[in-house]
Design goal:
The structure holds two protein chains of two kinds.
Chain A (H helix, E strand, L loop, with lengths): L10 E2 L1 H7 L5 H6 L18 H5 L11 E2 L2 H11 L1 H10 L3 E6 L6 H5 L4 E4 L7 H4 L4 H7 L11 H9 L8 E7 L3 H12 L5 E5 L9 H23 L5 H27 L7 H13 L4 H21 L8 E6 L6 H8 L2 E7 L15 H9 L8 H15 L3 E7 L5 H14 L4 E6 L5 H24 L3
Parallel strand pairs in A: 3-4, 3-5, 5-6, 7-8, 7-9, 9-10
Antiparallel strand pairs in A: 1-2
Chain B lengths: L6 H9 L16 H6 L3 H6 L1 H15 L4 E3 L5 H5 L3 E3 L7 E4 L22 H15 L5 E6 L1 H9 L1 H10 L1 H25 L2 E5 L10 H21 L5 E7 L4 H7 L3 E6 L2 H8 L4 E6 L12 H12 L6 E5 L9 H11 L10
Parallel strand pairs in B: 1-4, 4-5, 5-6, 6-7, 7-8, 8-9
Antiparallel strand pairs in B: 2-3
Helix pairs in contact in B: 4-6, 6-9, 7-8, 7-9, 8-9, 9-10, 10-11, 13-14
Classes of the chains: A alpha/beta, B alpha/beta.
């Protein structure tokens, strides 16, 4: 994708992007497409500004700030078009596989089957926030899954309404050492009549040397999934195709790692926290198109890299922060940036999608080996170490933990993580993300964020920075 | 009820070439909303908050599946200087066009939707509707197309004469009207509405096929092309008889065509593989004097429209009349909601 050489990095709103979009060349809009193996499909373009996605109901886009680079525009367009893309995949005759409950590690195997794409119903948890809507939560509540459950209950609403993704050819979900709330949601999805293939995640005891045993168990799970995929696609598993897919996935993971590296090492903040969040979550299911996703992230990586090398970035974002647990409400991240923060590290409980997968050997063993890096299947100590490592690498001055009210595992982890961070003299702000529409509760969170940032700024002054 | 789609979801699936549970039911409830809300049309046309409240009240009463921001086809022309007569119980009509002499055309500028005429009424109404109900109901902003606006700038008869005696002047008027329509469309989009392009003066009931080709079609294409650049689905509404224009309608590039006096089977057969159809209950059927059976017409329209390959929206051929009988409108909407797509995911 062509770059604008004279662009000064800053965050802009949807109004400004709408106007700026007029200067994007027509041929660039026409060239930027997903599913490129289907040439010139009238629906496959996706380089559009946030205003396009706004009129179809994503009301939060009116409030968010976006990076002003073409690469960020492309990333947002790619992310926001995922819902339609999955429908188009089905219309084009591809197989659609739903992976649920921390199964990002599984998607390299899925994409190694021809004309097969994966998507992540769990990520519907962002939809109520993007639409500023209770529709999916209310739908989940019809099944008794209410506010005492994590925001992933929106996925149940999606399955019930049948208007957010096509009926998957295969549903794969975790059981075992996984999110309890998601498990409850999945039980209800099963009750709706969807067949679910369960993938059992073993608990990883980080103090016991049972690595080999766990790996063997996971290998068995992967073999079962592979059989299911062969049955759904009618195609036999092919090692060459698998390793070719792994090459691509590794490239994508390297790009994400590189972007994170520039985010923490550059003098000024080269990119928004939301763009980084979108990039990191690409590793789960590649937003439904692995090849295009690689290209989108490569574009973003080049932009971040060139800004880091030039020393350019946003003005006024000085305080270096680690963000722990993905914020269901994206506006929170913009808000912390507006208060002078920048995201230099993150732990979004998707560590199983970060390691590079080996390029030689038994495919299932390689996948299992990578999967064992998951943050959710192990101890809190393991996850805490991941966070502390990033604090060390990035010189973070504070940490923000955006918890999930009602979620079964996150609250238990929050306290030990805070304690560990405070022992390292890293001030930490922890709060529960507020559901859409609860304006007064949300203002309380904003107040706490302001106070936290003021404290960090004062601390900075005291240290003479 | 668990598992039931809402209007936003239904429209969303339709626009992705998917089949929802049934076609959306979207009669053009525009100024009729004022009747339901109990305000006069001057209030409705001049106060965005009132317009929005009236739309929400009417939607709650009838349960139709979209909110319509529309006052009159002269709203752009008025913002450029034409005088319109606002009336308590009738829609606004042109009083004095701004252009009485060709030499004045040069001085015309596209209006600022934020400050000129009643355009801010539109934006305020959209903002309120989108903020209040935009998650479950699509908001549609009716944008007068260049041909219709040009007629409002110089008078209908003058424009029609100009197309013969002074085509350059007509094109000049159309150019500035196009810029104005683009500007208003953009602001409506930013407020959260999907534009519905309305061009009643370009109807086959008013102009010939030749005049449509030379004077309406080119700017419709440009306007739609601008919206397509943003990947927006475009609805074009032309009331009256469009039977001689169907192939040209397809040439505009519109994604949905809202039509009035056009045989629905002909529409399905001629453009139904490219364009989603929106129509077309004869609106006189909603009046007290009508002896038409709403249920029968509705069922007939549904049976013919639902087979449209590109999708179908059950609607009225034009605006729901101010003096519609409530029971008839209820009957139309309720009947429409009994339809089901065989290919529905439900």
């Amino acid at each position: 994708m062509k770059a604008w050489t004279d662009i000064i990095p800053r965050q802009i709103d949807f109004r400004e992007w709408h106007k700026l979009f007029m200067s994007i060349p027509d041929d660039l809009i026409d060239e930027t497409r997903y599913y490129r193996h289907i040439p010139d499909a009238e629906w496959s373009r996706y380089l559009f500004p946030p205003s396009t996605y706004l009129v179809y109901g994503n009301r939060l886009l009116r409030k968010l700030k976006f990076d002003n680079s073409p690469a960020a525009l492309r990333l947002w367009g790619f992310v926001l078009s995922e819902g339609e893309r999955i429908y188009r995949a089905r219309q084009a005759g591809m197989k659609v596989v739903a992976v649920m409950g921390d199964l990002g590690a599984l998607t390299p195997l899925i994409y190694s089957f021809p004309d097969t794409v994966a998507f992540y119903p769990d990520c519907l948890w962002w939809t109520p926030f993007m639409m500023e809507s209770k529709v999916l939560f209310d739908e989940a509540a019809e099944f008794g899954i209410g506010e005492d459950c994590c925001f992933v209950r929106a996925a149940l609403g999606g399955f019930s309404k049948r208007a957010y993704f096509p009926n998957p050819d295969l549903n794969i979900a975790t059981v075992g050492a996984t999110c309890d709330d998601m498990a409850a949601v999945l039980s209800e999805v099963g009750y709706l009549g969807y067949d679910i293939h369960y993938f059992e995640l073993p608990h990883r005891d980080d103090n016991r040397p049972d690595h080999e045993e766990l790996k063997q168990f996971l290998i068995g799970q992967y073999r079962q999934v592979c059989t299911e995929l062969e049955s759904v696609t009618g195609v036999e598993f092919d090692k060459d195709r698998f390793f070719s897919t792994v090459d691509k996935v590794n490239r994508l993971r390297l790009y994400i790692a590189e972007i994170k590296q520039y985010m923490r090492e550059s003098e000024r903040n080269p990119m928004g926290g939301l763009e980084l969040l979108n990039a990191e979550f690409a590793a789960l299911s590649y937003y439904g198109d692995l090849d295009e996703c690689i290209s989108v992230l490569d574009d973003l990586r080049r932009t971040v890299k060139s800004r880091a090398e030039e020393g350019s970035g946003y003005n006024g974002q000085l305080l270096r922060l680690i963000w722990v647990t993905p914020p269901a409400d994206p506006l929170l991240m913009n808000y912390i940036e507006e208060l002078g923060g920048r995201i230099v590290g993150s732990e979004y409980v998707i560590n199983q999608t970060t390691p590079l997968i080996g390029g030689e050997g038994d495919p299932f063993e390689l996948l299992a080996e990578a999967h064992l890096n998951g943050s959710l299947m192990g101890s809190t100590q393991f996850r805490t170490e991941l966070i502390l490592k990033q604090v060390e690498q990035s010189g973070a001055e504070g940490a923000v933990i955006s918890g999930i009210f009602g979620s079964t595992h996150c609250p238990y982890e929050t306290v030990p993580i805070i304690e560990a961070l405070r022992k390292r003299d890293v001030p930490t702000l922890a709060f529960d993300v507020v559901a859409p529409g609860k304006i007064r509760l949300q203002s309380q969170v904003y107040n706490r964020m302001e106070a936290f940032m003021e404290t960090l700024m004062a601390r900075r002054s005291r240290c003479g920075r | 009820m668990a598992g039931e789609m809402n209007p936003r979801e239904r429209w969303g699936l339709l626009l992705m070439d998917e089949f929802p549970d049934r076609p959306p039911v979207y009669p053009l409830v525009t100024s009729y909303a004022a009747t339901v809300y109990g305000c006069d049309l001057i209030q409705y046309c001049t106060n965005g908050a009132t317009l929005a409240e009236a739309q929400l009240t009417a939607q709650r009463e009838y349960g139709h599946e979209g909110l319509s921001v529309f006052t009159d086809v002269g709203i752009i022309a008025e913002a450029m200087g034409s005088k319109y007569l606002l009336r308590d119980f009738e829609v606004p009509i042109i009083d004095r066009p701004v252009i009485s002499d060709y030499s004045q055309i040069d001085s015309l500028k596209p209006p600022d939707p934020g400050s000129n005429g009643r355009l801010p009424v539109y934006l305020e109404a959209i903002d309120k509707l989108f903020s209040t109900a935009g998650d479950v109901l699509p908001v549609f902003a009716f944008i007068p197309c260049p041909f219709t606006t040009a007629a409002g700038l110089c008078g209908v008869e003058n424009l029609l004469m100009n197309t013969i005696t002074a085509p350059e002047a007509a094109h000049q008027l159309l150019d500035v009207s196009l810029q104005a329509a683009i500007r208003l469309s953009d602001e409506c989009i930013l407020a959260g509405a999907l534009p519905v392009l309305v061009d009643p003066l370009a109807s086959g009931s008013v102009i010939s096929r030749k005049t449509f080709s030379e004077f309406a079609l080119p700017d419709l294409r440009r306007l739609i092309s601008h919206l397509h650049r943003y990947d927006l689905d475009v609805v074009l509404h032309i009331c009256g008889d469009t039977s001689m224009l169907v192939d040209l309608i397809a040439e505009t590039g519109t994604d949905l065509f809202s039509f009035d006096k056009l045989n629905i089977v002909d529409a399905v057969n001629s453009i139904g593989d490219k364009i989603r159809l929106v129509g077309n209950l004869p609106t006189n059927g909603l009046l007290e004097s009508s002896e038409l059976s709403i249920e029968e017409i509705c069922q007939d329209t549904l049976e013919k429209g639902i087979s449209n390959p590109k999708g179908f929206v059950l609607s009225t051929g034009c605006e729901v009349p101010l003096r519609s009988v409530p029971e008839k409108l209820h009957a139309f909407i309720n009947q429409g909601k009994t339809a089901r797509y065989e290919k529905s995911p439900m």
